[in-house]
Amino acid sequence: DGCRRLVVYGVGKHTRRLPGVFVEDLPFVGFMDDSLPTWEFMFGLPVVHAADVRPSLRPDAVILSSDAWEESLWNRTAALRAQGVRVYSLYAQYPDCSPAPARSVWRDITHDQPSRLSPTPQ
After folding, report:
1. Cα–Cα distances in Å, from 49 out to 19, 105, 118?
2. Which residue in 88, 8, 84, 76 sits closest to 43, CA to CA?
3. I need a surface site. Which of 48, 96, 110, 117 has the fewest CB within 10 A?
């Protein structure tokens, strides 16, 4: 069973350079960031402050979308992980996190190949 409510953490250059990703048949429901941009929507999906993501977007999974700040984003998701939200990294390995599903999805969708994010047991 795959993720049903997927949120991308980060609205910086890393995320903005892949607009085609967010029109794929994946259950993206929005974006979260620690600093809200001046826009409320990105690629047609809402952007919310990280502190408000649980009540507003109700994610069951988060993809960390930053090459430069991934470890910091991982550390900031501790409360979400404690609440059962799965968090996926793209670049590094963190405790209780498997990067493989997110890497696979990101690679597939950036090469125009349909894919689904299927979490690994934690």
Report:
1. 20, 24, 26
2. 8
3. 96
Contact 24, 70 (CB under 8 A): no
SS3 55: helix
Beta strands in 1-122 (DSSP E): 6-9, 28-33, 41-42, 45-49, 61-64, 86-88
What is the distance between the alpha carbons of residues 108 and 115, in angstroms, rounded to a whole number? 6
User: So what's the pLDDT on residue 115?
Assistant: 39
Rounded to whole angstroms, how far apart are CA atoms 57 and 38? 19
Beta-bridge mates of residue 31: 8, 47
CB 109 within 8 A of CB 26: yes
Residues 6+ apart with CB under 8 A from 103: 90
